Amino acid sequence: MSVCVFLGMFWIARELFACAIPVFRYALERDSWHPAPYSVFLFHRGKLGASAHKALLSLEEAARQDGDTPANILFRAVDVDASMPGPLEPLWRRLENEPLPRLVLCAPGSLYPLWTAEATETSAAALLDSPARREIQRRLARGDAAVWVLLESGDPDKDAAAGDVVRREAEEFAKSFRFSPEAVEAMGLVSAADAVISFSQLRIRRNDPDELVFKTLLLSTEPDLHELPEPMAFAVFGRGRTLWALVGSGISPMNVSEACIYLTGDCSCEVKANNPGADLLFRADWYRILAGVVPEPFSRLEQAAPEASETFIRDGSPKTVAALAVTGAILLLAVFAGSILLRRGKAENRD
Predict the structure, then answer these.
(1) Domain spans of the chain?
(2) What's the confidence (pLDDT) of residue 194?
(3) Ranges assigned E (strand) in the chain
(4) pTM of the predicted protein model
């Protein structure tokens, strides 16, 4: 009997931790999956010129997370004639022969430069945004499970073949896919018939001058991508996160299908860092998007009462806190029951 109680407690705890919301929706809706910030520095000497000063103002505004159009960046202007912060010295030594003022972009949690350019109003704008990133944002906001970004190699035949594989496999997957009843309920849909999944594809030329920063971001998600002159496919989802790249012959029906399966599957791990992929840099007010946009593929969402119709639950809400509290209590009881069983087993063995 005690064993049954113990297993029952464990099953209840496991069910409380389970999440029926698909990965692509969970990544879009939950604060715990908010994109990690890139570090941006403006190195200069003394007073800034007019264009560099406009760049500074633009980056300061984008770094304000309570602003109208925030970006996932941390920004700092550094006067190299003043006292140089110790952690920035290795970064500055890499760049001290470059003309100033200069913008430097570093990946989240790193001080290795991914991209650098003269600090101007134009270069700051290119760092923060681009036509492709705006289009990806628009498609994710309308409800695409993912936007397959095809970074072309420059070989027309290879690029066409890779694009065909991604398009065909994603379309076939979307046609045959059906959400589980639990996922339909978790997403607030009326019925399974209302659950429509969609993917799209966006092709980018490697030499597109408007997308040089975005190309750098994509190629920097893994160490060796810069060296590979092959077409690459990136599944961008959530708030601008990408799965690891499919490259060359790796852009296969099986790999595209596996990526689609992962994105539409139950979110088994709520910790973003324990999931595959990397965050990209987007200038987007995701909270405003979530509050005001009804995704097109889910256009027949159930119109519930105002207090019950909020689809997007922030982490730390009473519901989340209560669930964690109950889960914690059950786990403690399970551990306590298990310890009693172990003690009884040892006593019986001694007898």
Answers:
(1) 2-21+320-350, 37-128, 131-298
(2) 56
(3) 38-44, 73-79, 102-106, 113-118, 146-151, 199-204, 232-237, 241-242, 246-247, 278-279
(4) 0.77
